[in-house]
Amino acid sequence: MNIQTTLEQFGLSKKEAQVFITLNKHGSITVLELSRHLQIKRTSLYRILEELIRKGIVETQVDAKTTYYTASGSKQFESLVVEQESKTKLLQQAFQELTVNLPLTTTQNQKETSVRFFRKQLGLKQMEWRMIEASKNKELLIIGTNQWYKTLGFDFAETIREAIVENNIIIYELIKHEDAEDVLNPNGTTTWTSNKEYVIHHFRHRELPHQVLQLTQDFYVFGDAIQFHGYQEEDVMGIEIQSRDFAQMFRQIFWHYWNHATVIDKFGSKIKMSNK
């Protein structure tokens, strides 16, 4: 089975597969450059790219007035496997062939600072996996609400928590008063997860009074990146900014609020905070 056929097993059309393979080969390129490589009209390419973005396997980067398109990493195909359990065996076989025969990368030709936009539930799930990959053996700082797992679903939230444990990630989260009512029991049990290992060893949270900061959307800091997740009615979207300076600044903001927040869980003394 060739690469194009493998991609078609994931639901891509022939032209969609050709566009994805070209993006993977050339890195971040414009629609004009893509049109020259494939001899496909730009009007048609925009429709194809929109569909690939919807599927979560192509990303956009905005630089001044120019939009660049990039093939996502192979990890995103695994999320498609999870989404389509009825086709798990077929998708896993295709995914293995894809990663063996076509090493995918999102880092080729990237600039030091970049901005990416994500749409719908699939886009937010892609953002979650990006955070996991970038936060291995590190900490993930969150100022947020409980909307993310309500939007993405309990099963996916549990999958992410398992990945956090497996990758030795420590979560520090500031939450609003309304979301702090379901406190954690000393043995790590709570109503919103069955993963006690995650609760006791990988999750710290504090309550931030609404008069200090009103929380309506979710905000993340990890590595050299920051993310914003939005849940305005039907407009589920996310923005990721890759910038060492921005990440450092927002990390300082987070720890400032953390030091003024109310301690909720009793596990914090077991972990040393590295970036305070």
Question: Can you walk through the features of this model?
Answer:
The strands form 2 sheets. An 8-stranded mixed beta sheet has the order 3-9-8-7-4-5-6-10, with helices on both faces. The chain has a two-stranded antiparallel sheet with strand order 1-2. The longest helix is centred in the last third of the chain and has 16 residues, at 244-259. The protein has helices at 3-8, 14-26, 31-38, 42-54, 75-83, 88-101, 120-134, 147-152, 154-166, 196-202, 244-259, and strands at residues 58-63, 66-71, 114-119, 139-144, 170-175, 203-207, 218-222, 225-232, 235-242, 262-263. The termini are far apart. With 276 residues, the chain is α+β, with helices and mostly antiparallel strands. The protein contains 11 helices and 10 strands. It folds into 2 domains: 3-101, Arc Repressor Mutant, subunit A; 114-270, 2-Layer Sandwich (Endonuclease, Chain A), CATH 3.30.870.10. 28% of the residues are buried. A hairpin with a 2-residue loop joins strand 7 (218-222) and strand 8.
